[in-house]
Amino acid sequence: MTFQLREAKREDIPELLSLYSEFTKTFVGSASRSLEDFRRFLRRKDNLNWVAIDNQKHIVGYARAHFEKRLNRGEFAEIIVHPSCDFERVAKPLADKIQGMFVKKKVLSITAGSIRNPEFEKIFPALGFFESESMGVFMYVILDTQKFLNEIQPTFVNRLKQLKEGSALTQIECEGSSIFLQKTNETVQPLVFTNQPIDFKVS
User: Fold this and answer.
1) Which range, 60-69, 73-82, 114-123, 186-195, has the best average confidence (pLDDT)?
2) φ, ψ for residue 14 (rounded to 5)?
3) Which of 6, 38, 71, 153 could lock onto 13 through a cystine, CB 3.0 to 4.6 A?
4) Taking residues 108-128, what's their average pLDDT?
5) Are 71 and 53 in contact (CB under 8 A)?
């Protein structure tokens, strides 16, 4: 069976609600959602809503994601597939489509924080995602490690400033890229490179 992908439309809303109800009954139990919820999802310009259509023009799956502009981050909200269909065959093209759109937007990272269906473990690792309990998300992928490190640098600078007096050299490493922060009694300065011994390493 082949599927066609397209953006969700307002006229799809009743069918999306029906699909959602069927899916939740099978995987997580009955869940409450209304037509107005789907209208809101489709209204938001920073949401990405795509559907998978079968040969009979029925919606058999959909993916909803969100572009968090302030954080320059993509977020998978949910991927829903009709229980009668092969989850992986329908969900993976939807995930690929959303991921490709996030890449075009040049996001720093993508999370799949609210997705708890074990079936997702069949599709997200292939897209470069890894689990991260410490970050409070199910799966996570970093697309541009150096930009990501530059983005989080101010947070680490503020944390180091809160430490008691003393000097320390901290290295923050992510997938082969690093930033170095030199703390003195008065300031915290980023270093382009150093061959000094590292006091603390975060990776």
Assistant:
1) 60-69
2) -60, -40
3) 38
4) 68
5) no
Name the band, by pLDDT with cuts 50, 70 and 90, for residue 202: low
Could you identify the residue written with the tokens 């599709």?
A: 123
**Could you count the other beta carbons within 10 Å of the beta carbon of residue 89?**
15
Name the CATH code of domain 4-143 (choices 3.40.630.30, 3.40.50.150, 3.40.50.80, 2.40.128.20). 3.40.630.30
Residue spans per domain, the chain: 4-143, 146-202
Share of the chain above pLDDT 90, in %: 24
Maximum alpha-carbon separation in the chain: 69
Instruction: Write down the pLDDT at residue 1.
Output: 67
Count of helix runs (H) and strand runs (E) in the chain: 4, 11
Residue 22 buriedness (CB in 10 A; 0-12 / 13-18 / 19+) = middle
What is the rounded distance in angstroms from the CA atom of residue 9 to the CA atom of residue 127? 27
Average pLDDT, the chain: 78
The CA distance from 35 to 158, in Å, is 44
Give the strand pairing for 4-7 and 47-53.
antiparallel
Residue type (1 letter), 182: Q
Which tokens go with 195? 């061959």
The answer to which of 109-113, 134-138, 143-147 has the lowest mean pLDDT is 134-138
Nearest to 67 by CA among 115, 108, 16, 96: 108
User: What is the Cα–Cα distance from 130 to 141, expressed in whole angstroms?
Assistant: 6
